[in-house]
Amino acid sequence: MRRWWPYEFTVVLIHWFILGFVAFDRLLIAYVFPVLLPEMKMDFTQAGMLMSIVGLAWGCTCIIGGSMSDKYGRKRVIIPSTVIFSLMSWATGLARGFVQLAVIRTVLGCFEGTYYPAGVATVAEEAKPSRRGAMIGLHQTAFPIWGSFIGAVYATQVAAAWGWRWVFYLTLIPGLIIALVHWIFVKEPKSVAARIEARKRQEVHKVVSETGKHVTVKDVLRFRNIFLSTVVSVCFMAWLWTLLTFATVFLTKVKGFEMTTAGFIMSGWGLGGAIGQFFIPALSDFLGRRNTLALSAFLGGLATLWFALLGPNAVLLYLAGLLAGVFGWGAYPLFLDVIPSETVPFAYAGLAVGIATGVGELVGAAAFPTIGGIFSDAFGLKPTMLAAGIAPMVGAVFALFVVETAPRKKAVLKPSVSV
Questions:
Q1: Which helix (H) or strand (E) covers residue 271, if one does?
Q2: What tens digit of pLDDT does each residue of 222-274 get?
Q3: Contact 228, 398 (CB under 8 A)
Q4: How, if at all, do strands 214-215 and 207-208 pair?
Q5: 8 A C-beta contact, residue 409 and residue 402
Q6: Can you say whether the dihedral through the CA atoms of 230, 56, 132, 206 is positive or negative?
Q7: Is 301 in contact with 242 (CB distance < 8 Å)?
Q8: Is residue 155 part of a domain?
Q9: How many distinct structural domains can be found in the chain?
């Protein structure tokens, strides 16, 4: 059994489902905006604020959650977080106004934010080094598959048939089941388990780098890659959350499509993301993280600009969204997960991932949906889509300065990443 199904595959599979429901619970609301906004008498600015609130909550709790999981254990963060964000997704369907939605979505964002760095750090440590990019990429495919591909079709079809509230009511039970499965089958990673055992024995547990140097929490911020990953994260969060918030409305209001057709077009973006989030990180195992990230970021931005400039041609829009998904989504595992977790000792991987994700969420995901909403109310949705396409191209420039971390390339380019 171990030969044909290594433990790392179990870890990736279970976390694939958890991350899938993170995406599902977070993104479904954007797909029902065409019917939710009129019922709640909300404008684009308020729609953007609802998306921003979740990003703000993620940003505030990602760093805390990652640090807590490093110190006290991944499972102690992952399981309760999964239970609570699943409950908040269900509660979204109960909301009767903007304020109630805002409160519920804030709590949801807090616990999705605490899960994310703990989950990524677990997958990164358990993955075989030579295929770490592929394994993290496989884990990350859950976000576009569930959030954009399945989610876009599910939300628009269920909302059209039963109303938008049932879109959220049906998400609770699967979330609780996967939390239970994780509790049964996933162990604490060795680096965290060692720190927990040392604390039980009242011993000081030192974390060392590949070169044998003692690394502290403060040292994590001194790695160049953590800073660069964070900057790239801000650029991509601006891209992602602007599109997630307004692309469906853009297709219905500007391009003139029915909501169900817009949902299918958006599913192409999710399908492309699923393809890209596996193959782009897997490719980086061989070509290196830096060059793969820079090229993918540039092409993702280019495809997004094409999407914004196209006429009401569903086939071409689907293709443009597919390509934007392949290269835009495909870059995400590299700057959020692979590069930060490979840069620091695994005992601090949760914090490293939390910094890149948390700051990106605070600056990009929390601010840009609201900014995009204000901008769209003033100038229309098309300029907002164009701005979203430029953001990843800016990130591509910063990606060129990343220190290589891919195990296959690092031995050639640089013996190790030092403090």
A1: helix 259-287
A2: 888 999 999 999 999 889 888 877 888 889 888 888 877 887 888 888 789 88
A3: yes
A4: antiparallel
A5: no
A6: positive
A7: no
A8: yes
A9: 1
Element (DSSP H or E) covering residue 148:
none
85's tokens: 């964000």
Question: What DSSP state is assigned to residue 187?
Answer: P
Max Cα-Cα span within the chain:
66
Cβ(123)–Cβ(10) under 8 Å? Answer: no
- Tell whether 398 is covered by a domain: yes
Taking the C-alpha atoms of residue 79 and residue 349, their distance in angstroms, rounded to an integer, is 18
Task: Round to the nearest angstrom and report the end-to-end CA distance of the chain.
Answer: 40
| Residue pair 29/49 in contact by the 8 Å Cβ criterion | no
Phi-psi region of 380 (alpha: psi -120 to 50; beta: other; left: phi over 0): left
What CATH number did the domain enclosing 250 receive? 1.20.1250.20
Residue 381: both structure tokens together = 């949705």
Question: What's the token pair of residue 148?
Answer: 């954009």
| Residues whose CB falls within 8 Å of the CB of residue 19, separated by 6 or more in sequence, listed in order | 116, 119, 139, 140, 142, 143, 146
User: Is there a contact between 409 and 290 (Cβ–Cβ < 8 Å)?
Assistant: no
- Residue 3 covered by a domain: no
What pLDDT is stored for residue 380 in this prediction? 82
Distance set, CA 281 to CA 135, 188, 287, 290, 417 (Å): 8, 25, 10, 11, 19
**Residue 34: domain span:** 8-413
Residue 397 lies in a domain: yes
pLDDT of amino acid 316: 94
The predicted pLDDT at position 419 comes to 38
C-alpha distances out from residue 290 to 43, 167, 240, Å: 40, 39, 21
- In tens, the pLDDT along 96-108 reads 889 999 999 999 9
Q: Which residues pair with 207 in a beta bridge?
A: 215
Cα–Cα distance list, 115 to 87, 127, 167 (Å): 14, 18, 23
For position 415, what pLDDT does the model report? 32
Report CA-CA distances (Å) from 383 to 92, 234, 255, 392. 30, 19, 14, 16
